[in-house]
Structure formats: structure tokens, C-alpha cells
């Protein structure tokens, strides 16, 4: 089922992307921290948090696309 | 606003991090730019998937707080002890914390995921039983009509939603009527279609999840196609071949 495939792919990909990307995704999407909170906690400038989030999203997307293709879209 | 600068603001916009002026600017840009709108939709889908399909782990919230507190404390002490060299970067402590939290969330989500999958199976069984009951009993149709403009209003006042009733006579799936079923703890609409001598029941009700997805499954020789779209859940069930049932589902979703 696509639901399972997508969930599995997402879980795998979160584990597979580089740790620096994983951490900002976890903080943003699961901990619901704001950019400012993430920046404060990580000791990074807000701009870096933003670009890291952006690259993390891109990496996740790239990782998931081939894994969910072939499902019943 | 140019695409290049808009592109960098799409994510902060999705995350609700833009001030009002920038938000207005990006919204204006999105209404006029297909490429950026596409990026926006793709990112929103990814975000929805992360947030919805990897549900938040509420139960170990106390655990999460403990980890974060401990790490903050350690980061402070570490910085003092080592004179700001080895472990002084909060980033490194944060990395450890995030890894621990991620491990917890993955373990927790795996459990949630299994129960969700069991939930889907249970709904499928209910759907199938209802389909079989409709075929062997006398209760296939409450409103026997091939006219979608008769069937749709019939549901008015009987349900807390209005199902989208479509007829596919010209594509070989004529509408023959509808009825109300009580499934998954709520009244749902059943739309009934015919394909040669086969009956297709299409069950629909408002979805709890806003995530669009689709699934096919086969149980006891019957085929089921399930999809979520525009906050409605759909289950099509029949003894038709899966390819034909999928064709029906595609028609309905067009």
C-alpha cells in the first residue's frame, strides 16, 4: 500500500540524510521549534538554519522520489 | 518579486516565519508564478507528510524535555570545564540530543504505524462485509436512481456531509443509486454502480487526515481501492478485476 510505502520511505530517508540535516528537520517538524529557537540551541546564525532546512527538505525529497515511484499514484 | 528571491522565501513562508509584508509579497508572487507555486505545493506536501505520517510522539514528552534539559546543562558545564574547546559547541550537544530524540521518535512511530496499518485492515474488513451484505440482502439501494441529481439531494439532511455523486454511464459504469450505511462508528454514503453483471460499492465519508494517498488491496477474492482526497475518504469495492476497479477509481478522481 502506498501509505506504508511512503511512511517507510520517509522513515528510511530521515535516517539516511546527513546528520546535520536530520537534526534541523527533527527540531523544526517534530519539536516544532522556531528558526530562532533552533538557531539559539544550535549556536548557528538564523541564515544557516534556513539554508540547512532548505537543503534538508531538498535531500529528503530527492531521497523519497525514487522510493515511492511505482506505487499506485 | 523575482523568482530567485521568492524561491528562498517559500520555506520560511510555509513555516510561518515571514513578517506580514514579505508574506503578502510572496503570496502575490505565488498567484502569478507557476514554477514557484509548484515548488510551494511540493514542499507543503513534504511537510504535511513529515508532520502527519510521522506523528508526533506525545507520550514521551517528559522524556524529551529531560533529554533537552540534560543536554543544555551538559553543554553549559562542558563549555566551562574544557575552557570552550572540545564540547563547547552547542551544535555538537544538540546533535547528540537530536539523535537520541530521533531514535525515540522512530521507535515510537513504528508502534503507531503498526496500529495505523491494523486500523486500515479493520476498515477494509468492515467495507467488505458491508459490500457482501448489500449483495446477498435486500438492502442494496435506499434511493434507486441513475440520475445523479436525484441521488445527491436524497442524502441531504441524512448525513452531515454531501457526497460527490457522479455518473459514468458513458464509460461503462452506470450509477444505479445510493444508500446509507453505518460503518467505522459513523453513517457513511454508499454510491452504487454497475459494470456488466458486477456491482461496485463506493463508500465515502469525511476524512480525519488531510493527507492524500491511495491504496489497493485484495481480501477474500474481492478487490478494494482506497483513496483520500480533498479531506474525504473513499473506498471502492467489487469483485471486478483490480484493473477495472482502478479504472473506476481514476474516473471518479478526474
Task: Assess the beta-strand content of chain B as a share of residues.
Answer: 15-25%
Can you give the mean pLDDT of chain A? 75
Instruction: Compute the CA-based radius of gyration of chain A.
Output: 14 Å
Poorly predicted ranges of chain B: 55-59, 81-89
The number of distinct helices of chain B, counting runs of at least 4 residues, comes to 7
| Main interface: chain pair and counts | A-B, 37 and 40 residues
- The dominant shape of chain B is extended
Q: Order of strands side by side in the largest beta sheet of chain B?
A: 1-2-3-4-7-6-5
Secondary structure elements and pairings:
The complex is a heterodimer of chains A (73) and B (254).
Chain A: H1 2-16, H2 19-30, H3 35-42, H4 46-68
Helix pairs in contact in A: 1-4, 2-4, 3-4
Chain B: H1 3-14, H2 20-32, H3 34-53, H4 61-81, H5 90-136, E1 143-144, H6 148-154, E2 175-183, E3 186-195, E4 198-206, E5 213-219, E6 222-229, E7 232-238, H7 242-253
Antiparallel strand pairs in B: 1-2, 2-3, 3-4, 4-7, 5-6, 6-7
What would your notes on this structure say?
The complex is a heterodimer of chains A (73) and B (254). Chain A is 79% helix and 0% strand. Chain A is mainly alpha-helical and 73 residues long. Chain A has a domain at 31-58. The longest helix of chain A has 23 residues, at 46-68. In chain A, 38% of the residues are buried. Mean pLDDT of chain B is 80; it is low at 55-59 and 81-89. At the A-B interface, helix 1, helix 2, helix 3 and helix 4 of A face helix 1, helix 3, helix 5 and strand 5 of B.
Provide a short characterization of the protein structure.
Chain A has 73 residues and is mainly α. Chain A is 79% helix and 0% strand.
Amino acid at each position: 500500500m502506498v501509505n506504508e510505502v511512503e511512511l517507510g520511505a520517509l522513515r528510511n530517508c530521515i535516517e539516511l540524510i546527513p546528520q546535520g540535516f536530520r537534526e534541523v528537520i527533527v527540531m523544526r517538524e517534530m519539536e516544532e521549534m522556531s528558526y530562532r529557537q533552533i538557531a539559539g540551541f544550535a549556536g548557528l546564525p538564523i541564515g544557516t538554519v534556513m539554508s540547512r532546512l532548505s537543503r534538508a527538505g531538498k535531500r529528503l525529497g530527492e531521497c523519497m522520489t525514487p522510493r515511492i515511484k511505482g506505487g499506485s499514484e | 518579486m523575482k523568482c530567485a528571491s521568492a524561491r528562498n522565501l517559500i520555506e520560511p513562508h510555509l513555516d510561518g516565519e515571514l513578517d506580514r509584508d514579505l508574506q503578502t509579497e510572496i503570496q502575490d508572487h505565488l498567484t502569478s508564478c507557476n514554477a514557484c507555486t509548484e515548488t510551494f505545493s511540493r514542499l507543503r506536501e513534504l511537510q504535511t507528510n513529515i508532520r502527519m505520517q510521522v506523528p508526533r510522539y506525545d507520550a514521551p514528552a517528559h522524556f524529551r524535555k529531560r533529554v533537552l534539559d540534560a543536554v543544555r546543562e551538559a553543554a553549559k558545564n562542558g563549555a566551562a570545564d574544557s575552557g570552550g574547546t572540545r564540547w563547547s559547541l552547542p551544535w555538537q550537544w544538540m546533535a547528540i540530543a537530536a539523535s537520541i530524540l530521533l531514535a525515540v521518535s522512530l521507535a515510537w512511530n513504528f508502534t503507531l504505524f503498526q496500529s495505523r496499518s491494523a486500523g486500515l485492515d479493520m476498515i477494509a474488513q468492515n467495507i467488505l462485509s458491508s459490500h457482501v451484505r448489500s449483495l446477498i440482502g435486500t438492502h442494496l439501494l435506499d434511493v434507486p436512481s441513475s440520475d445523479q441529481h436525484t441521488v445527491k439531494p436524497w442524502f441531504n439532511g441524512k448525513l452531515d456531509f454531501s457526497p460527490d455523486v457522479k455518473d459514468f454511464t458513458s464509460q461503462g459504469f452506470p450509477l444505479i443509486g445510493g444508500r446509507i450505511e453505518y460503518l467505522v462508528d459513523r453513517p457513511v454514503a454508499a454510491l452504487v454502480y454497475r459494470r456488466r453483471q458486477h456491482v461496485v460499492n463506493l463508500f465515502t465519508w469525511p476524512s480525519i487526515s488531510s493527507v492524500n494517498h491511495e491504496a489497493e488491496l485484495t481480501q477474500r477474492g474481492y478487490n478494494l481501492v482506497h483513496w483520500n482526497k480533498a479531506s474525504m475518504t473513499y473506498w471502492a469495492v467489487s469483485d471486478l478485476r483490480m484493473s477495472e476497479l482502478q479504472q473506476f477509481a481514476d474516473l471518479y478522481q478526474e
